[in-house]
């Protein structure tokens, strides 16, 4: 039985091999992505015993994704094959400044038909951590229900719930996305937000006030992912720490935040103190941003430890 399981939407990734708009790029490198898929694969590479809950299409992408999970040691027994719907796809293109743009082919995907009935209570209860994402809540009512059921089962069983806001305005209006977020916060133990998430959901409310609001509810930890500025962590006991980023030459930030979250959660499972968990998570995110794609550049635990020994934790 896995220690850490994630629920959500995998996506086949097509990353442009040259700068330009989608219609102008001739060659793409294939890979994999999707917020919770990025998370669970990053956790597995870092040495976690992981499993994934989703639906994939009865197509070449679905078959390849399931095989890829198994290759990386991720339990795929809860990956259901849907003969009526396709596996989602997204395209990544880049500007001259290496900023990325995402274009999705996900409407009607197999993962969007994930439902509460697909969640095995024993699978959730047997894990130490369940990880979910606001994206999974937003892609369909059915998938939102599955996330809610899984989180409620986890809370009932005493399984730690990790939740990443991952706000995507293209997937819903502000009120709906904020409702999804606050419903998840009420069931979560660890909540991740970015500055963009916070600003979209709560307007001009300062980020630190949003973190205070989160830990004033149920969660034990609220973690702000700040990219090149590191991270800010607050706990329900009043402990807080701001951890600076590691210096790297960032190439592609796709999936780096998801990898960061995986590093932080695994550190908590290994009983690390907050500051140590933040430094480790920052290193995981930095190394992931040093390569192209969401999953391909994810580091191993040994990679992270070597990097941390060789570098200094200062802002870029």
Commentary on this structure:
The chain is an alpha/beta fold and 316 residues long. The chain contains 11 helices and 13 strands. The chain has a 9-stranded mixed beta sheet, sandwiched between helices. The chain has a 4-stranded mixed beta sheet with strand order 3-2-6-7. α1 crosses α9, α9 (256-269) runs antiparallel to α10 and α10 (274-289) crosses α11. It is globular and about 50 Å long.
Structural features:
nine-stranded mixed sheet; alpha/beta; globular; four-stranded mixed sheet; 13 strands; 316 residues; 11 helices
Structural class comes to alpha/beta
Q: Average the pLDDT over all residues and give the rounded result.
A: 94
Shape: globular
Rg, rounded, reads 18 Å
Q: Please describe the biggest sheet, giving its number of strands, its sense, and whether it closes into a barrel.
A: 9 strands, mixed
Strand order of the largest sheet: 5-4-1-8-9-10-11-12-13
> Which regions have little confidence, pLDDT < 50, spanning 5+ residues?
none
Strand tally is 13
What is the helix content? 25-40%
Give, in order, the helices and strands: EEEHEHEEEHEHHEHEHHEEEHHH
Percent in strands: 15-25%
- Can you count the helices? 11
Cα distance spanning the termini: 40 Å
